[in-house]
Amino acid sequence: MSLRQSAFVVFVVCLVLCSVQPGLSAVDKIIVPSNNRIPEVSHDAAGGPETCTCSSEDVGKLTPLQKLQVELNTYDLPTEIDELEEWLKDPANQKPIVTLTSGQKQKIQKNFGETFKSKVEMEDSLKISEADVDNKAPTSIKPGSSRKKRDSGARVCPAVESYEALVLAIDSNNRLVQVVQIPEEDAEQWFLQESCQHASSPVTVATCANTDRLVNAYIIHLATGNMQYGNIKVHSCVGYV
């Protein structure tokens, strides 16, 4: 960590510790790790399990401490969209910028539980969906895997498909957002990612290209601190005649 980065972290942490933040419990505290990332908001275990007594509207905003997490964990990220998209492709960077409290997670699951699925539920729904579309036995997915190749006869440009529980993504306005995921409760949002198998179609005269498409997700807008549904970009394979 550079001297400038160290000074920035010390200044912000001191600012928070020396200020009275509305809405924060006295047992909330900051964990400052050696890698300059603040990975979680912790709560004193002696206080018992955290319960949420807020209204559903209150879940839609990050707390002051969580906004501090965002500031510390994003100030050195790429700012150009092309560089940010490349940065997101590294699986090592697919980790939360901000940590939700147990109360927030509880309220999100209560209000928006239909948005989340376990991996087993995702794979089961995928098999049912394929059976309905193809009117035949569904394509099997190996146990423990969420990746498969689609039959080349099913589309002009066949693709390698993977179903991923994305943590960070780009929204429709080219801003970095965090996708709400609750893996410890086996509740995640799954997204189909595609990568073209060929540069040109094997079944007709067409060019195959990797592009993006928009899908809906429950996300955290890191720039504003709002939690809401919004569109994010995922990888897609398309054919051009």
Describe the protein's topology.
Elements lengths: L2 H15 L11 E2 L10 E2 L21 H11 L6 H9 L12 H11 L6 H16 L12 E3 L9 E6 L3 E3 L5 E4 L11 E6 L10 E15 L4 E15 L1
Antiparallel strand pairs: 1-2, 3-4, 4-7, 5-6, 6-8, 8-9
What's the gist of this structure?
The chain is of the alpha+beta class and 241 residues long. The chain has helices at residues 3-17, 64-74, 81-89, 102-112, 119-134; strands at 29-30, 41-42, 147-149, 159-164, 168-170, 176-179, 191-196, 207-221, 226-240.
- What number is the mean pLDDT? 76
What would the principal axes of the Cα set say about the shape?
globular
Number of extended strands: 9
Report the total helices.
Answer: 5
Largest sheet: 4 strands, antiparallel
Radius of gyration: 21 Å
State the low-pLDDT regions, or none. Answer: 15-57, 136-145
Order of the strands making up the biggest sheet: 5-6-8-9
Order of helices and strands: HEEHHHHEEEEEEE
Strand proportion = 15-25%
Which structural class is indicated by helix and strand composition?
Answer: alpha+beta
Separation, N- and C-terminal Cα atoms: 51 Å
How helix-rich are the residues, as a percent range?
25-40%
